[in-house]
Structure formats: structure tokens, C-alpha cells
Amino acid sequence: VRALQRQGLRPKTQVRLATGRGEITSDIVLTRSRIAIFVDGCFWHACPRHATWPKHRATWWRAKLETNVRRDVRQRRRLREAGWHVFRVWTHELPEQAASRVIRAVSTIRHRRL
Ligand SMILES: [Zn+2]
């Protein structure tokens, strides 16, 4: 969030966004560019680089984590349908790097409108 503010953006946090079916809470939102950012933990959202599949109660954990992943996919699709640009940031990413990815997208989106 701070990295985005330094770029002169006005990010809001924990915003409830309306979609066709119910509301979805996004971690960071840039309203003007219609960007919704989700900051996802590597474990809970099964990041491709750091996902660990616990061996103890393996079946239960696998079902639980796969449910999370499916819910992420579903929610983000609904937001896209509602006209949002959806970004996912992993907790392993450096804030500055994640921010610059978002900032590049912001300028692309603004250009497209001109
Ligand atoms: Zn990760």
C-alpha cells in the first residue's frame, strides 16, 4: 500500500465490491482505475512456488486448500465480469515489485481510455 501511495495513487484497503452475485472483499482497491488487488498468503492460497501440502491429515488439508483455490478463481471471475481488473500479489513478492506491476497496469488502463 505504501509503495502505491508513493506513486501518487490513493489505494483503499479492505473494500467490499459489489458483483452480480453478492459482495467480495478486496485487500487493496484503486477505484479510479477499477483495480482490485488480492494479497494472498503462499500457504493458504497454494502459491505455485511455495505451496506445501501437509503430510499429516493430508487428505483433509488437500481438500481445504483446493477449496480455497477454487473460491479464489470463482470470486475473481465474478469481479472481472463486474468490470474490475483483478491482480493477485503473493506474500512472497517484494512490495516494490508488486507495486510496480500494478502501476504499469494503471498507466495502461489510463492510456486505453484516452
Ligand atoms: Zn509464495
Structure write-up:
By secondary structure, the protein is of the alpha+beta class. The chain is 41% helix and 24% strand. It has three helices and four strands, in the order H-E-E-E-H-E-H. The chain has helices spanning 2-5, 58-81, 95-113; strands spanning 12-18, 23-30, 35-40, 85-90. It has a four-stranded mixed β-sheet with strand order 1-2-3-4, with helices on both faces. Strand 1 (12-18) and strand 2 (23-30) form a beta hairpin. The chain is globular. It starts with a helix and ends with a helix. The relative contact order is 0.20. The model has no long low-confidence stretch (mean pLDDT 93). Residues 42, 47, 49-50, 90, 92 line the site of zinc ion.
Overall outline: globular
- The strands making up the biggest β-sheet line up spatially as 1-2-3-4
Bound molecules: zinc ion
Share of residues in strands: 15-25%
Major sheet: size, sense and barrel closure?
A: 4 strands, mixed
Helix content: 40-55%
Structural class: alpha+beta
| Number of separate strands | 4
Low-confidence stretches: none
Q: What is the CA–CA distance across the termini?
A: 26 Å
Tally of helical segments: 3
Gyration radius (Cα, Å) is: 16 Å
SSE order, one letter for each helix or strand: HEEEHEH
Average of pLDDT: 93
